Recover the amino acids of this structure.
């Protein structure tokens, strides 16, 4: 159950996302209710897997899902939103500023292997790239005890994406998001060493 202040911020995010989308087309939603149901609600499911005071990297943040949702609902954690599209970064910064989300930082850049972002205890992504590509791009960013939590679609597609995963180096778990309309999963990947 969300406290009233958090609920209000999430509703403001949905409203502002639709307003911004009318002129800038950052995603495929038509109403505030649709954003809340298809984006915010799905992103809230990660919260049971987040520890207090995590240092989080959200790769390819887009319209802020899951990054802004995580930042709003986990104020004791710090989160860096990496987004290469300037238009989307403008939106992320507006929301961050207007909702006083001091635990969020927006980085307008491409994520590259051997980047200088530092290490994180949690790396997230939603609708960004294949699992293999995400791991390759962020290989220097996951701390030894850290993990990835990736938002993915069908179990068959996930299994296909996990094929190249080095299971001597990584353990994984696939969590069904129990979405009635569309098959969705969270994939949790940790170092096995």
């Amino acid at each position: 159950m969300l406290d009233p202040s958090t609920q209000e911020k999430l509703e403001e995010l949905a409203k502002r996302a639709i307003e911004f989308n009318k002129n800038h087309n950052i995603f495929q939603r038509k109403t505030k209710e649709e954003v809340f149901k298809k984006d915010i609600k799905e992103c809230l499911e990660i919260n049971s897997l987040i520890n207090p005071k995590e240092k989080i990297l959200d790769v390819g943040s887009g319209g802020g899902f899951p990054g802004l949702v995580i930042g709003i609902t986990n104020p004791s954690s710090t989160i860096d939103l990496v987004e290469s599209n300037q238009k989307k970064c403008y939106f992320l910064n507006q929301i961050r500023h207007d909702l006083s989300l001091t635990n969020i930082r927006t980085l307008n850049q491409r994520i590259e292997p051997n980047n200088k972002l530092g290490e994180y205890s949690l790396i997230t992504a939603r609708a960004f790239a294949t699992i293999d590509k995400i791991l390759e791009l962020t290989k220097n960013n996951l701390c030894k005890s850290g993990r990835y939590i990736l938002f993915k679609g069908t179990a068959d597609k996930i299994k296909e994406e996990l094929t190249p995963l080095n299971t001597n180096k990584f353990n994984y778990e696939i969590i069904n998001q129990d979405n009635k309309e569309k098959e969705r999963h969270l994939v949790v990947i940790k170092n096995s060493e």
In short: The chain has one domain: 4-151. The chain has six helices and seven strands. The longest strand covers residues 142-152. Residues 4-24 form the longest helix (21 residues).
